[in-house]
From TrEMBL:
This is Iron ABC transporter ATP-binding protein. Keywords: ATP-binding, Nucleotide-binding, Translocase, Transport. The keyword ATP-binding applies. Coiled coil: none annotated. It holds the Pfam family ABC_tran. Transmembrane segments: none annotated. It comes from Ktedonospora formicarum. Residues 11-248 form the ABC transporter domain. CDD domains: ABC_Iron-Siderophores_B12_Hemin.
Length: 453
């Protein structure tokens, strides 16, 4: 009997955290890439795609977490060992010497030569010639690399990677300088490598249409993984709006089988008042305390906003998927004055604020102070607490408030504000179910209820 083939986990990131300085840039990133996969890394400028590729190729080391290459810690492979398995095509490359294209492509063979200065073998020469041919740069062989156009340099860098004959190809925006012909040719070439040589491909790419066309798996990245699935799930206009902050139309063009992403047509743009309309439920959560509520609101098709939430908090990741707007704060950071102003503004336009039973610390207690100030100006506030020891029970003085105290790390200020909120008329609930029943009965007309999908 032939054993069923088990996909090999070729490159695995486990809980990677990284920052260039004291600020955390990537927080708790985990991903698994099987041998022979073709993965596109999508995300706005500055979202950390290049940084993730540099971590995966061993150029940068994670502050926390590990990276496994074919089951072994990447650090144990050494630079040469990694270069024999992984080729990287950077966004651009500058050399201090006037190397020819042929010499540059020949450097792709260096990891396999006995010493850096070792003469290339006949086999190396053949591979270099083939790589230049495949990448369409054979005619540039004698030209000086530094004197080439951006697009020509990009194709030479791809030829260098091809000469390396890697198991894994990491590409950082491989088509950014290329005209449409070479964009298509380059991605066709990459796909050919993937299909014929089973080369694993991970490519940071800005063109969502090319990503949809060539990559079966898309990772949407915003300093962490926001979505990781096929094009149909990741190229969702609401998700793209949240991550990129723009309206796009996603659809399948006539005669095509792939998704296309376009700016909205002028005549299909929503009226200004619709665009500017804020969701009228706002959720304050953190530390996973909002998960059940946010899922329930989404299931009932309530539009809602959330935050401020720290990047890396599981509530933040979920809110990016489910909420219509998310106020975002840096990982682990206390609420900044900018985010607090955003929250204050949101409270002014919100009909109902739902406060989840989040841990209260010095970093987020300003949110509670804002909530109390907003309640005093008339904002409807629903306090959601654990089924037992709910805020209503705890804070009316009849029973002990041990559960609230247990999540209050402010030395009592958090509990005090919750008590004042109840005194000021915030309504307490013991379960998400109760909140939903209340919303069904009392939600004012201005609560936006989404039409069925
Ligand atoms: N060497 C560095 N030192 C300090 N900060 C850096 C360094 N390299 C990148 N950064 C910062 O890290 C953040 C992420 O950068 P990165 O290049 O990984 O993003 P990206 O998603 O690849 O962006 P783009 O799409 O614009 O290429 C940016 O804010 C950038 O300014």
């Amino acid at each position: 009997m032939v054993a069923a083939s088990v996909p090999i986990e070729q490159l695995v990131g486990q809980h990677i955290t990284f920052g260039y300085n004291e600020q955390t840039l990537l927080f708790d990133v985990s991903l698994r890439v099987q041998a022979g996969e073709m993965v596109a890394l999508l995300g706005p400028n500055g979202s950390g795609k290049t940084t993730l590729l540099r971590l995966l190729s061993g150029v940068l080391r994670p502050r926390q977490g590990t990276i496994l290459l074919e089951g072994r810690d990447l650090r144990s492979w050494g630079r040469r060992g990694i270069a024999r398995r992984i080729a990287v095509v950077p966004q651009d490359l500058h050399t201090p010497f006037q190397f020819t294209v042929e010499h540059m492509v020949g450097m792709g063979r260096a990891p396999f030569q006995s010493s850096f200065l070792g003469a290339p073998s006949k086999e190396d020469d053949v591979m270099v010639a083939e790589a230049m041919e495949e990448a369409g740069v054979a005619s540039l062989a004698g030209r000086v690399f530094n004197e080439l156009s951006g697009g020509e340099r990009q194709r030479v860098m791809i030829a260098m990677a091809l000469a390396q004959q890697p198991a894994i190809l990491l590409l950082d925006e491989p088509t950014s300088h290329l005209d449409i012909k070479y964009q298509i040719e380059t991605l066709e070439l990459v796909r050919h490598l993937n299909q014929r040589r089973a080369t694993t491909v991970i490519a940071a790419i800005h063109d969502l249409n090319l990503a949809a066309r060539y990559f079966p798996r898309l990772i949407l990245f915003q300093r962490g993984i926001v979505a990781d699935a096929g094009p149909a799930e990741v190229l969702d206009s609401a998700l793209l709006k949240k991550v990129y902050g723009v309206d796009v139309q996603v659809g399948i063009m006539r005669g095509s089988v792939h998704l296309s992403i376009l700016p909205p047509a002028e005549n299909t743009r929503a009226e200004p008042h619709e665009v500017e309309q804020h969701p009228h439920i706002h959720v304050l959560a953190g530390g996973g305390s909002g998960e059940v509520l946010m899922r329930a609101l989404a299931d009932e098709r309530y539009a809602f906003s959330a935050g401020a939430l720290n990047i890396g908090d599981s509530d933040h990741t979920l809110a990016l998927r489910l909420a219509d707007d998310v106020i975002t704060e840096q990982p682990y950071a206390p609420i900044s004055p900018g985010a607090l102003e955003h929250v204050r503004e949101r409270f002014r336009h919100t009909g109902i604020l739902i406060l989840c039973p989040m841990p209260i610390g010095p970093g987020n207690v300003p949110l509670l102070r804002e909530a109390l100030a907003a309640r005093r100006k008339g904002l409807t506030i629903l306090l959601l607490d654990a089924p037992k020891g709910s805020v209503s029970v705890c804070l009316d003085g009849k029973k002990n408030s041990s559960e609230v105290v247990a999540r209050d790390y402010t030395g009592g200020e958090g509990t005090q504000i919750l008590t004042e909120l109840v005194g000021a008329g915030a309504i307490s609930f013991a379960s998400v179910q109760e909140v939903l029943e209340w919303l069904r009965q009392h939600a004012p007309n201005n609560v936006v209820v989404r039409p069925p999908a």
